[in-house]
Design brief:
heterodimer, A: 4 helices, about 55% helix, B: about 525 residues, alpha/beta, Rossmann fold, Aminopeptidase, five-stranded parallel sheet, 17 strands
């Protein structure tokens, strides 16, 4: 897992209250049943606070996987 | 505590941040119904705290400029008031009204009588009135958060439109901290003593090297940071916090600063205890604790030197030792934003609080007198006057404060909040007996308390502030208690002793005052009785 993905995965794990090992680089709303639409909002709130990346409505609604969230981070 | 959170917006992200509180969320957007409906969970016995955290803008609904406050806001105030009155045993927390800056429509807002700003002021005036008559309503000044951090940081438009989450995570965190602080302050769980270092803490530079006029303390530049800090410390002292000095200095240097530096805001008499010497600070702190007759767990120690802080934190567990700000220009705001709310939050400030330092200093003088005289002669010489107030409604805040803060001379250590005290005051089967103390050195105010349960012929609470311990005043309180029981036609008094870590000094109090031991439990609780002649 890239460093960026790992950091995003740890934010997701802490919001979903899961052990870090259960949130992998390919984790998404499709394959984690705890990751529902309310969780999506909480993940994005935590993501915004942690990385300071501004998110518009479309981005919040569509960034439903670790990979998509990691892609929002600057290189 | 078990809390129920009611709102008109999505506050779910706050839940996890409020730990260790046990928080249940009410139905979405049912705050008005929940408060008004006597069969709602809010009214049930399950919850001790009802948190009403509503969004003012959402409450305005479709009201337009010039409409004044929306009917919903008025309804909220009405149901809030009646809920508080019908549930005096519950603590109800409500935020103040605070409209978005983006709601201001025109430069005429300040003057227009029907503007949103005028409506906001009227709503908050009403809310404050309700809180003044209902001591179980705890107001949360939410505008403070917006002033500190700004709307740009605290509101989140995308989350609002996607999921009715108005706030950013930063806001949820700030709100959680504010709630914890306010509820702690309401229960009087704040610290009592601020202990300060001198060089590079109360002023810039080292007085031993620069002399009393060479230290940085002035109206400009670096010196003003320290002078502003001193102003804040002095303001805090007026709320009842005791000040002490614990520093490595020549005592004579400090005297010179007090006597000669006109820029000092803090004066010698503002400090309840001063230890400026070359002894290790942990030892000095323990001595200050002994002099003030207070535990070190009620101390906050401020020192710019990390080594001294580390030494104190390790050697004297219980003292709060916050990290000093790195840049001196942040000292005043650090103190007011981080230190005061976290450690010294107060919800009610009583007359005793304002005079506390004077009382502790008078205590020092009394102690000096007592070392030269035998006890009985000393006590006669004090010219003690005791006045008893029975069910003193106007001193309800002080009564609650005494039950919450008294540790040493406290037979049962039952902690009560304002709603509990109000119940005692209103119940015909209880009497609240408050002792007001005066002697020739000055008045100590209300320093002794007994709560009597006539139905069970029992002394529920019997405590004395440590300020008057050792003056046999407790005998007079007990005399008054006996008199009240007799007037009530009761022939017997039941007394209890419940041991705690701090009340050993009264373990034998009833044994020494004509009571007979009835039973003793494994945890050390003892039941006594005394037959009234």
């Amino acid at each position: 897992m890239s460093a960026k993905s790992a950091e995003v995965a740890s934010v997701v794990a802490s919001v979903l209250n899961l052990p870090a090992a259960e949130v992998t680089a390919d984790a998404s709303m499709e394959n984690l049943h705890q990751w529902d639409s309310l969780a999506q909002l909480n993940i994005c709130l935590a993501f915004h606070e942690r990385f300071g990346v501004a998110m518009d409505m479309e981005t919040i609604a569509s960034s439903t996987s670790v990979a998509k969230l990691a892609a929002l981070l600057p290189n | 505590m078990k809390a129920l959170l009611l709102s008109n917006i999505n506050m779910q992200p706050l839940g996890a941040l409020l730990k260790p509180w046990d928080v249940t969320f009410g139905e979405f957007n049912s705050i008005l119904l929940d408060l008004a409906n006597p069969a709602s969970p809010a009214a049930s016995g399950e919850f001790t705290h009802i948190l009403c955290l509503y969004d003012s803008d959402t409450m305005m609904g479709d009201a337009l400029y010039g409409d004044g406050a929306a009917v919903q806001c008025e309804s909220l105030l009405a149901v809030l008031e009646s809920f508080c009155a019908t549930h005096p045993g519950k603590v109800v927390v409500a935020n103040t009204f605070c409209f978005d800056a983006a709601r201001w429509l025109s430069f005429a807002d300040l003057l227009h009588p029907q503007s949103l700003r005028a409506a906001e002021n009227r709503l908050n005036d009403r809310l404050i009135d309700i809180a003044r008559t209902n001591p179980n309503l705890l107001l949360l000044d939410i505008e403070l958060l917006f002033r500190c951090h700004g709307e740009d940081a605290l509101l989140s438009a995308p989350f609002w439109y996607l999921g009715r989450i108005r706030y950013s995570n930063q806001m949820f965190r700030s709100l959680a901290a504010l709630l914890h602080q306010a509820v702690d302050a309401y229960a009087n769980r704040s610290r009592k003593v601020l202990v300060l270092d001198l060089d590079n803490t109360l002023w810039g530079g080292i007085v031993g090297e620069t002399g009393p006029l060479g230290i940085a303390l002035s109206e400009d530049g670096e010196g003003r940071c320290y002078r502003d800090f001193q102003r804040e410390v002095k303001a805090l002292q007026r709320t009842g916090v005791l000040l002490a000095i614990c520093s490595k200095n020549n005592p004579g240097d400090l005297d010179e600063v007090f006597d000669r530096n006109p820029m000092m805001i803090l004066r010698r008499e503002d400090f309840a205890c001063i230890r400026a010497n070359w002894e290790p600070k942990p030892q000095n702190l323990l001595e200050i604790a002994e002099t003030l007759n207070l535990g070190v767990d009620s101390f906050v120690f401020i020192d710019d030197n990390p080594v001294e802080r580390e030494m104190v934190a390790t050697a004297v567990p219980g003292v709060a030792v916050p990290v000093f700000p790195e840049r001196i220009e942040n000292l005043p705001s650090w103190f007011m934003r981080d230190i005061v709310p976290a450690w010294f939050g107060r919800y009610a400030i009583t007359a005793e609080d304002r005079n506390k330092t004077t009382q502790y200093r008078a205590n020092e003088e009394r102690r000096q007198l007592s070392s030269t005289l035998d006890l009985d002669a000393f006590l006669r010489d004090l010219e003690i006057e005791c006045t008893f107030h029975i069910d003193p409604v106007e001193q309800i805040a002080r009564v609650a404060q005494l039950t919450q803060k008294t540790n040493q001379f406290n037979l049962t250590t039952r902690r009560y909040e304002l709603p509990d005290i109000r119940r005692f005051l209103e119940s015909p089967d209880h009497a609240v007996v408050l002792l007001e103390y005066k002697d020739r050195f000055g008045t100590e105010g209300s320093v002794g308390l007994a709560i009597l349960d006539y139905a069970e012929s029992r002394i529920d609470t019997f405590l004395m502030s440590c300020r008057v311990i050792g003056r046999k005043v407790e005998d007079r309180v007990l005399g008054k208690i006996c008199e009240l029981f007799r007037e009530r036609g009761l022939a017997r008094i039941v007394g209890e002793f419940i041991p705690t870590r701090k009340n050993q000094q009264v373990a034998a109090f009833y044994d020494n005052h004509g009571f007979t031991l009835l039973s003793e439990q494994e945890d050390g609780r003892k039941l006594y009785e005394r037959i009234l002649a």
